[in-house]
# Entry
Amino acid sequence: MAIETDVAILGAGPCGLFAVFELGLLDLKSELIDILDRPGGQCTELYPEKPIYDIPGLPIVNGQDLTDRLLEQIKPFHAGFHLSQMADGLKRLEDGRWQLSTDAGTEIIAPVVVIAAGAGSFVPKRPPEIL
# Structure
């Protein structure tokens, strides 16, 4: 059974998490899909303790703290998380909405799909072989 939502977000890193916040302010429900097993993207996977200096309003923050703050900020919006899953299909439905499917069999239907993904850093993406 497909999950119906306002917005499907590919990527649960800082950009995807902040998108949930901005969409929530507009009373739009979000579902996030991420190939990693936890939110935070590269910030938590590659440098959770490294200082980050270019986040507006925060002179210095590390990757894990930034993720923790974003998760706290989006808590009131009750986003759905589909972790350890990779999007493997996207098709336009007759009514104009999108049906997104994952390698775990999850199906999400939404009128909008936001791409906030950086999965290429974790899973090599090679061009198809030319015959």
Observations:
- The longest strand covers residues 87-92.
- The two ends are 39 Å apart (CA to CA).
- Residues 14-25 form the longest helix (12 residues).
